[in-house]
Amino acid sequence: MSKPRVLIPVALGTNRDHDLAHAFELAGAEANVVPLTALRSGAFRLDDFQILGVPGGFSYGDALGAGRLFGLDLVGWFGDQLHAAVARQTPIIGVCNGFQALVRSGILPGPSHSAVLARNERHDFECRWVTLEPSTVRSVWTAGLSEPLRCPVAHGEGRFVSGDLDALRAADQVAFRYVDAGGKPAGGRYPANPNGSVADIAGVCDATGFVVGLMPHPEDHVLDRQDPLRGRPGAGAGRCLDLFKAGVAAVV
Fold it and tell me: I need a surface site. Which of 34, 45, 176, 186 has the fewest CB within 10 A?
């Protein structure tokens, strides 16, 4: 059986594409890092791939707002392809800047909800490791994830704000929440909640469960040696490889 093909589009300023590709390859997929220019030329099309991974970084230098121009690219150049992929339930993940782009494009949380990723509450760029609790049974990306995950954040605009929080919760679209190192709710407290996100929301999915986005970087903890606590008691716990395996399994 051939491996599922993952499309990882990159814009100027994207810098986490190879980390994301490595995570998908470890999960059993074939990762393809493709510049947006190649997609615009028609050399590649989204429907040639089984999974879409929108990577992190600082696309277009975060001009006009984090992820805004990348999001405009996605809907402006590839809107038909992107909406067709969502309609046929293609697994899609957006990480950090990729999450911002999917929110800017309207793909997340979806047409029936409103949300933004605003400047961090402390007005700082946060670069630290955090703990996440998978919080939905709706998403294919969280299938089988029963333990907290550990991975880093690296963002200045990651504070999730929603005008439809009750509806988002009722639809089971909160995919990840920030918790403390012991797995207890962050309760909005820093540093467990690094940016002041409402209800400690670190990531959300769409109504289908096939599209997910999150601010932390799970692609940076798929191997034990990536953990700064390696060699200490509990090292290796909280790896995020199973998140990518779940996305791949959804198309195998």
Answer: 45
pLDDT of residue 81: 94
Domain count, the chain: 1
From 96, 151, 205, 240, active-site residue: 96
List, in order, residues 6 or more apart from 113 with CB less than 8 Å away.
Answer: 162, 164, 167, 168, 171, 173
Active-site residue, selected from the candidate residues 126, 151, 157, 217: 217
This model's pTM is above 0.85 = yes
CA distance 221 to 252: 23
Residue 1 has a pLDDT of 65
In the chain, which residues have pLDDT < 70?
1, 234-236
Task: Decide: 119 and 158 in contact? Cβ < 8 Å.
Answer: no
Its domain, for residue 206, covers 5-249
Q: In this structure, what CATH number is given to the domain that contains residue 64?
A: 3.40.50.880
